[in-house]
Design brief:
The chain is mostly beta strands. The protein has helices spanning 6-9, 87-92, 104-118, 149-152, and strands at residues 4-5, 26-29, 32-42, 48-54, 63-67, 71-74, 79-82. The protein has a domain at 4-161: Alpha-Beta Complex (Photosynthetic Reaction Center, Chain H, domain 2). It is rod-shaped and about 170 Å long.
Length: 296
């Protein structure tokens, strides 16, 4: 299983630490400050396996790996306690170079230094052999971190941290599409009829006998002119029917938002601290913290 620096594994890893990022915490061993935590190594599942320790002036200029199970975290003082770590062990540990991959052989060198301590044996003295005496019953392909629980399991009991949780009702809104309105135009046809009165002129010729018919006319009044013509122009109206387009109405399209308040009700749970005492001990801080100081 590969190991990764936590920043490479998840650039936003701090979002999962609840403001308890241990990178930068001071490292203490046997009551003395011996270095600080410069980074973390996690496996492919994101589980912390090692702390990368800058040993400062304890062992000048040497970075080493500390299995997470060999640490005790003090969040309030921002400290890491390396359980039983000695200078001889730091000197025996292989130097960690941040640019090099941490493979199985490298981890075995690290584990061989810590295993006597993890098994509850006496801490390694200067000059003592660091190789485990029992024969290995595993290899690169069969090793599992569960074989070394003392090295890789973080002892929560040693931290004495009790977290109280409460539930809160979170109201969010989700915008979802409920429908769609399409407004278009279509052409309908109908047959229209219109009546237009028109006028046509026509000639009416009436021939009548005058009252003084047969009466002689004066000499010179009767002129017999051949070819004399009376001209009358005739007119008539023709209908002029055509189609023209006019604006009948305008349609305005807009959206309006109707607002309403939706009521929801849930049963919420909250953990409270119960302190049982015997005798007359003095207990500070046992009261209920204000809600502004609670950690959710």
């Amino acid at each position: 299983m590969s190991l990764h620096k936590i920043r490479d594994f998840d650039p936003d890893y701090r979002n999962h630490f609840e403001d308890q990022d241990i990178i930068g915490y001071d490292l203490y061993a046997s009551g003395d400050k011996v270095g600080s935590v410069s980074d973390l190594l996690v496996d492919d599942t994101g589980k912390i396996r090692y702390l990368i320790i800058n040993t400062g002036f304890w062992v000048l200029g040497k970075d080493v790996l500390l299995p997470i199970g060999q640490s005790q975290i003090n969040y309030s003082d921002r400290q890491i306690i390396a359980k039983g770590l000695t200078r001889d062990q730091v000197e025996a540990l292989p130097h960690y170079d941040g640019n090099m991959p941490v493979d199985y052989e490298y981890e075995e060198q690290v584990r061989n230094v810590y295993r006597p301590m993890g098994m509850g044996a006496v801490p390694v003295e200067a000059g003592a052999s660091l190789d485990p005496t029992p024969a290995l019953d595993y290899d690169r392909d069969t090793y599992n971190y569960d074989r070394d629980p003392a090295l890789y399991n973080l002892d929560e009991q040693a931290h004495q941290n009790l977290r109280l949780y409460e539930e809160r009702l979170i109201a969010n809104k989700t915008r979802m599409k409920t429908g769609e309105v399409a407004v278009g135009k279509r052409v309908e046809t109908e047959t229209a009829r219109v009546s237009v009165p028109i006028e046509k002129e026509r000639i009416v010729i009436e021939r009548t006998t005058p009252v003084n018919a047969g009466t002689a006319v004066a000499v010179g009044d009767a002129t017999f002119n051949e070819g004399e013509v009376a001209r009358v122009e005739l007119y008539e109206e023709t209908p002029d029917i055509r189609k023209e387009a006019f604006v009948r109405e305008e349609v305005s399209i807009r959206k309006e938002v109707d607002r309403e308040t939706v009521q929801a009700e849930e049963t919420l749970r909250r953990e409270e601290l119960d302190v049982d005492t015997e005798g007359h001990p003095v207990v500070d801080g046992a009261g209920n913290p204000s809600r502004s100081n609670k950690r959710v």
